[in-house]
């Protein structure tokens, strides 16, 4: 009797999905599994394309072409990273370490790294991306580039991701006007995290916030380079975060005391805990954690209700 050739489709699809789930973080294995059969390809693609990385200009062209040839693939995207030059950051640093060997050359390494030109900064014009309606996580990082001006291309790029609930921003805005334009593009934010945020020009009451912060649950501000009072005054006052449950910050307090009290008042009915990590004298980085279960308040008032 002739032996029958094994076929990947002989396995139940549920089992195939479980196998693929166990290798979801191994891109090389996922590429191999996507070639086994149609069922394996279907299960593999949703992990192969779960993250859309826009570090280079050619990434925009690649995703435009993917959308044109495989219209179902953009639906697999769950997380988006916009980080000009970020993909090759580690390789560039390693190359510079080889160029400047020794512990005493760290300054030379960082200076040359910062002065290197990157392939692109802003989203390129005339590249229309497919809609990615299931992307819920979005990272915008321009820490390696100059602040990116708000343009029609920027607006069109951000409109590609209408379902974002977890937003992370790293770097610098040119102005508070453009910061509000950026935040206005996200209508379903539940978590907002910033790292080393800075703004070159603060223009009080210029430009209106038109987004929605009413579903915000988590606010995390790490290493703010400037006061974040504008976030309360010009964003949260327009759309109050009445479901805010968690506030955290690291290093310097990002708000003035008066503004911070206003933020606490806005979230009085929902706030559950705060994690505060100011710089300590001995540089140990110890943090304070305040919750409804603890009879404490950052300004010595009563405990959280």
UniProtKB/TrEMBL annotation:
SUPFAM superfamilies membership: F-box domain
Taxon lineage: Eukaryota, Fungi, Dikarya, Basidiomycota, Agaricomycotina
Annotated segments matching region Disordered: 272-305
InterPro entries the record matches: F-box-like_dom_sf
Protein name: F-box domain-containing protein
């Amino acid at each position: 009797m002739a032996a029958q050739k094994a076929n990947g489709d002989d396995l139940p699809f549920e089992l195939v999905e479980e196998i693929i789930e166990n290798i979801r973080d191994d891109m090389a294995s996922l590429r191999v599994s996507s070639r086994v059969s149609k069922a394996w390809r279907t299960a593999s693609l949703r992990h192969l394309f779960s993250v859309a990385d826009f570090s280079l200009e050619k990434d925009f062209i690649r995703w435009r072409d993917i959308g044109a040839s495989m219209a179902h693939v953009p639906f697999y995207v769950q997380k988006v990273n916009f980080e000009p030059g970020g993909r090759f950051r580690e390789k560039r640093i390693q190359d510079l370490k080889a160029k400047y060997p020794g512990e005493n050359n760290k300054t030379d390494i960082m200076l040359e790294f910062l002065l290197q030109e990157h392939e692109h900064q802003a989203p390129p014009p005339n590249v229309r991306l497919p809609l990615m309606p299931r992307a819920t996580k979005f990272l915008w990082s321009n820490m390696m580039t100059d602040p990116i001006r708000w343009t029609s291309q920027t607006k069109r790029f951000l409109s590609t991701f209408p379902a974002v609930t977890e937003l992370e921003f790293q770097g610098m805005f040119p102005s508070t006007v453009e910061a509000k334009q950026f935040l206005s593009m996200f209508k379903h934010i539940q978590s907002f995290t910033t790292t080393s945020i800075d703004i070159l020009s603060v223009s009080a009451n210029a430009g209106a916030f038109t987004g929605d912060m009413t579903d915000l649950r988590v606010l995390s501000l790490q290493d703010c380079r400037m006061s974040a009072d504008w976030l309360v005054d010009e964003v949260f006052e327009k759309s109050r975060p009445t479901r805010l449950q968690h506030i955290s910050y690291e290093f310097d307090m990002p708000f003035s005391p008066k503004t911070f009290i206003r933020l606490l008042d806005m979230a009085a009915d929902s706030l559950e805990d705060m994690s505060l990590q100011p710089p300590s004298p001995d540089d140990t980085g110890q943090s304070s954690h305040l919750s409804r279960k603890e009879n404490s308040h950052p300004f010595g008032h009563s405990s959280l209700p």
